[in-house]
């Protein structure tokens, strides 16, 4: 199986086909440490007092965006009949959004009849606008008194316990480290597994001295912060960031299906059938939309950076060149990959998100034609010539392009960014509305329930060559100081909230641990009036403690024996002295340990 991971610092993504890394099988509980319950043991609620007073009390963050917060708020609502109906109405509207078009109307009518009959005029047809307003009204209601009452419930206290676990220090001991998958600009990439949950990731290790030697601190921190900010099923996620003595570590989504470049050129005739092009282009479009929503321009869209997971869905990887665009401003930067850089990037003009829509046009063209728009496969041509073609020449379209495929490529590959598709006020919505995507249900796609047209074979190796993974040369003459430690503290922030909570739910740790008392009562760890249990001592600690106790007892016995000998002597010589000594040595107190 190919293990495909993202890189940091602007270097290319890496694959190593000889590394068989299994991410599934054996149930969701497979791979957990025998001590997983101890690792994820809830602190007593009395230990959450500081967090309780400092945590942000925002309804949207706690009850909508954070997966565990959302689940616990739902559990609280299920205990209140009125709130239970609110939650069920929200669920029904969510289902309506992802229904196939032919079933949507009947499902909408069912929602109206079941939940809204007394509140809407007779004969009103369901539509997205009605449910959008209804959804907003529901959340406005739930964010009021119900949210305030939730914060006084045991469900909110349990949320605090989960947040305490989420904030536990992350070290190399959090993971099992597996074989090296490849190497990037600053260090190795290896597969790793979280001991507590069994979830597999890719760990990118950035050598501290190598970062300092190449002055890569800003680049590494920039990518880490961007990955941390983005929460999208179409962009590789950052789950943990921690440090060891010699390295900074990014723990990222592991992708096993290979990259689009391999699939385009090494799986038969170069290029894909139209259905596959549409599916990948739609998911890439969603990924770009999520990045742009956070004011992030990606700037390096190419087949090598689009990775497939086990199920055939894609994610955008390698955010080394991505950058946040300040609100209301434009940026300048001549970065990217030759043949995929937009004209405004080549000419070093200012831009915002326009290079990414050009890149999408290049990808749709290449997936369809089996070659990039401005350079033939394996064509030997200088950089200057490729850039001249991008700036001056019109791409050619052959018989493999259907009318709608050619149309969207021409619109995305418009050389003037002001006229380019996606660069107007509607952004991604304008791209999604193109006839090319008429068969794509974007709501279902974003919910992850659209079936991919191709699913990777778990026994196949989706990589052409075995990479020669060599050791890095020693970094000499580089010394680390306090300034470096300040940078490491900014980098090593531990768990990333939403990916961590998703991991707990996906691996069923949440289900196994989120247990309450009988009849909905508070369990002991949530009882404010019950003192916390004393911490459990390790086996080694108990052995050492037992040995120390035995040693002390032996020593006390020896002292008492010697004292007895002395007192016997004193008794025969001087009876008052014996009385004084017996007051000094009290056997009953000696054995209190």
Automatic annotation (TrEMBL):
Catalytic activity: [G-protein-coupled receptor] + ATP = [G-protein-coupled receptor]-phosphate + ADP + H(+)
Domain RGS, chain residue ranges per copy: 64-160
GO cellular component: cytoplasm
UniProt entry keywords in alphabetical sequence: ATP-binding, Kinase, Nucleotide-binding, Phosphoprotein, Serine/threonine-protein kinase, Transferase
Gene Ontology terms, MF aspect: ATP binding; rhodopsin kinase activity
Annotated AGC-kinase C-terminal domain residues: 438-503
Cell membrane listed as a keyword: no
InterPro entries in the cross-refs: AGC-kinase_C, GPCR_kinase, Kinase-like_dom_sf, Prot_kinase_dom, Protein_kinase_ATP_BS, RGS, RGS_sf, RGS_subdomain_2
CDD domains found in the cross-reference section: STKc_GRK4_like
GO biological process, one term: regulation of signal transduction
Active site annotation, chain numbering: 300 (proton acceptor)
Binding site for ATP: 213
The protein's Enzyme Commission number: 2.7.11.-
Domain Protein kinase: 175-437
SUPFAM superfamilies assigned to the protein according to its UniProt record, in alphabetical order: Protein kinase-like (PK-like) (SSF56112), Regulator of G-protein signaling, RGS (SSF48097)
SMART domains: RGS, S_TK_X, S_TKc
Family: Belongs to the protein kinase superfamily. AGC Ser/Thr protein kinase family. GPRK subfamily.
Listed name of the protein: G protein-coupled receptor kinase
Lineage per the UniProt record: Eukaryota, Metazoa, Chordata, Craniata, Vertebrata
């Amino acid at each position: 199986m190919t293990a495909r991971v993202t890189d940091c610092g602007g270097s290319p993504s890496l694959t190593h086909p000889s590394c068989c890394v299994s991410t599934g099988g054996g149930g969701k509980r497979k791979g957990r440490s025998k001590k997983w319950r101890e690792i994820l043991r809830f602190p007593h609620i009395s230990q959450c007092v500081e967090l309780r007073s400092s945590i942000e009390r925002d309804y949207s963050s706690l009850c909508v965006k954070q997966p565990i917060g959302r689940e616990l708020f739902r559990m609280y609502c299920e205990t209140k009949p009125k709130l239970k109906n609110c939650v069920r109405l929200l669920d029904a509207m969510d289902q309506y959004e992802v229904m196939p078009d032919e079933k949507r109307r009947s499902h909408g009518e069912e929602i109206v009849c079941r939940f809204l009959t007394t509140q809407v005029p007779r004969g009103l047809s369901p539509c997205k606008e009605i449910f959008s307003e209804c959804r907003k009204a529901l959340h406005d209601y739930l964010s009021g008194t119900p949210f305030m009452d939730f914060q006084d419930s045991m469900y909110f206290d349990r949320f605090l316990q989960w947040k305490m676990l989420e904030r536990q220090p992350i070290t190399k001991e959090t993971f099992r480290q597996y074989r090296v998958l490849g190497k990037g600009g600053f260090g190795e990439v290896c597969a790793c597994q979280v001991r507590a949950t069994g979830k597999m990731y890719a760990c990118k290790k950035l050598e501290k001295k190598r970062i300092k030697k190449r002055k890569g601190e800003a680049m590494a921190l920039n990518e880490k912060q961007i990955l941390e900010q983005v929460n999208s099923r179409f962009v590789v996620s950052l789950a943990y960031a921690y440090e060891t003595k010699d390295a900074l570590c990014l723990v990222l989504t592991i992708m096993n299906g290979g990259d689009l470049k391999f699939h385009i050129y090494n799986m038969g005739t170069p290029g894909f059938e139209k259905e596959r092009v549409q599916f990948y282009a739609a998911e890439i479009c969603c990924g770009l939309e999520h990045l742009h929503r956070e004011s992030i321009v990606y700037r390096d869209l190419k087949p090598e950076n689009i990775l497939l997971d086990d199920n055939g869905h894609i994610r955008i990887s390698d955010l080394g060149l991505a950058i946040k665009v300040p609100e209301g401003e434009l940026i300048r930067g001549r970065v990217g990959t030759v043949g995929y850089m937009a004209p405004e990037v080549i000419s070093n003009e200012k831009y915002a998100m326009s290079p990414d829509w050009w890149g999408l046009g290049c990808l749709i063209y290449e997936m369809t034609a089996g070659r990039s728009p401005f350079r033939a496969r394996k064509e030997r041509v200088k950089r200057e010539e490729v850039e001249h073609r991008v700036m001056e020449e019109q791409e050619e379209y052959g018989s493999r392009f259907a009318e709608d495929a050619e149309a969207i490529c021409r619109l995305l590959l418009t050389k003037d960014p002001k006229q380019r598709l996606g660069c107007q006020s509607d952004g991604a919505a304008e791209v999604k509305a193109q006839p090319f995507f008429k068969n794509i249900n974007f709501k279902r796609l974003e919910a992850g329930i659209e079936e991919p047209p191709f699913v990777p074979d778990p026994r196949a190796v989706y990589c052409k060559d075995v990479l020669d993974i060599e050791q890095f040369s020693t970094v000499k003459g580089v010394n680390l100081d306090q300034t470096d430690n300040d940078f490491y503290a900014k980098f090593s922030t531990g768990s990333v909230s939403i990916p961590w909570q998703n991991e707990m739910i996906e691996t069923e740790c949440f289900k196994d641990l989120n247990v309450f008392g009988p009849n909905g009562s508070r369990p002991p760890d949530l009882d404010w009036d019950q003192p916390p249990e004393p911490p459990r001592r390790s086996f080694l600690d108990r052995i050492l403690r037992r040995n120390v106790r035995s040693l002390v007892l032996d020593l006390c016995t020896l002292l008492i024996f010697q004292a007895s000998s002395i007192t016997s002597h004193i008794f025969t010589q001087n009876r008052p002295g014996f009385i004084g000594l017996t007051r000094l040595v009290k056997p009953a107190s000696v054995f209190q340990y």
